[in-house]
Amino acid sequence: VEAQRARPGQPVSGDALVRAGWPGERIYPEAAKNRLHVGVSTLRKLGLGDILARDGDGYFLDPRVEVRLVE
Contact at 8 Å (CB) between 59 and 40? Predict the structure, then answer.
C-alpha cells in the first residue's frame, strides 16, 4: 500500500516484500520464494486477484484503484 501511494504502478521486488512480510527472519532463498508465492496466492483468493499484478520480479497494485488503510 505504501509503495502504491508513493510510486503507483511501479513493482515492489519480491525481496522487499519478503523483508516486509517476515521482518528480521533469516530465510533460505527458496523458502522465501515459496512463502511469497503462497502469500500472493492467498491475497488473490481473498479478492485481490483483479488488482494485484506482477511485473518482472515484483508485484504492484493496480494504480487505478484507490487504496484506503483502515485501522
Answer: yes
